[in-house]
Amino acid sequence: MKTKALESWERDMLRCIRCAYCFVDCPILTELGWESAGARSKVILSYGLKEDEIECNQLIKDRLFQCCLCAQCEINCPAKVEVGGVVRAARKDLVEAGHYFEAHRVMREMVKKTGNVYGEEKKDFHYPKVGAEFALFVGCVGKHREEESLKKTVALLKKLGVSLTSIDEVCCGGVFGDVGFQASPEDAEHIKEEVKKAKVKKLLTTCPMCYRTFKEDPRFEGLGVEVLHITELLEKLDLPVKTNRKITYHDPCDLGRHSDLYDVPRNVIRKFAPDFQEMSKNRENAHCCGAGGGVRGSFTRLSIDMAKKRLQEAIDTGAEVLLTECASCLHNLKNARKRKQKIQIYNISEYLSLLMDGEVG
Ligand code: SF4
Ligand code: SF4
Q1: Residue 167: which domain range?
Q2: What are the tens digits of pLDDT across the range 169-198?
Q3: Residues 12 and 92 occupy one common structural domain
Q4: CA of 36 to the centre of ligand 2 (A)
Q5: Distance separating alpha carbons of residues 58 and 62, to the nearest angstrom
């Protein structure tokens, strides 16, 4: 098997001292229980593929795709091995050799056909207004799987007087780099062109994955506007509501470990919810909800089992409300909730909108 992508990660793979600190708090290893599921093993398997010492089989393929790319292992790794980079490169080589997951291939096809990963008909969240300060980019999951939450977010921005427009969205493509497929350069050009046409100063994202993609993906070089996550905007605005309910917060991996936005969402929450309680695992040690890295598409049961554990951690705080600000985390955590579990789950912006309308306490 050719391993062109892995070639450039040789130094990271050789830097691994096999200490297994990366096993601590790896959500996949916790679920599966097999050492071969941990980050160390993913590094060893990747090196074996690169050196042509092993051939890909179903188990090796599974292990390399059973990773949320949550970066918990990188926080714990004393040798600073960039496990996510190695895994992404391994996946790229596996896909190149035909070892892909059908769910991921279908997502890529759907984006080609419809502009979103679900193959859904285009939904109009379009508020054309040339010269607004912000263009809102909502992303595939928000638009097609958490539409009610998204509507509340949009309503909040209007209520707060944010000068807002939207663009003709296509998928930002961030997920494809994670699952070994190439993201579309044409789609990136389309988004850049739309942003230019809207004549905005800033691109506002609700999805942490889109946020990261616009900031880090070379396809978006020359975007020409500042990219903000919605929590960064809310932190600066006056929020004319308060709740006495006990609130806790789940850090989305793409916002926390990958973008270093830990204080910003907490600052927003503390403005309207003085009774804030951290989960035992928070900030850089927050457990992943299990939705990331393409795991939800290829290992749905595993993904939900991780979300169940994270949800239980939220319940253990005694909070009545679990907040996050990521449509993927929101969707997975809500799917994991059992009817008898009373905790309510919202995006921060959605909850604020409901508070302002008096629909929640
Ligand atoms: S913590 Fe880092 S150095 Fe230690 S085994 Fe894991 S990847 Fe290798
Ligand atoms: S990125 Fe997350 S899921 Fe993947 S090996 Fe590291 S800790 Fe485990």
Answers
A1: 134-234
A2: 999 999 999 999 999 999 999 999 999 999
A3: yes
A4: 12
A5: 6
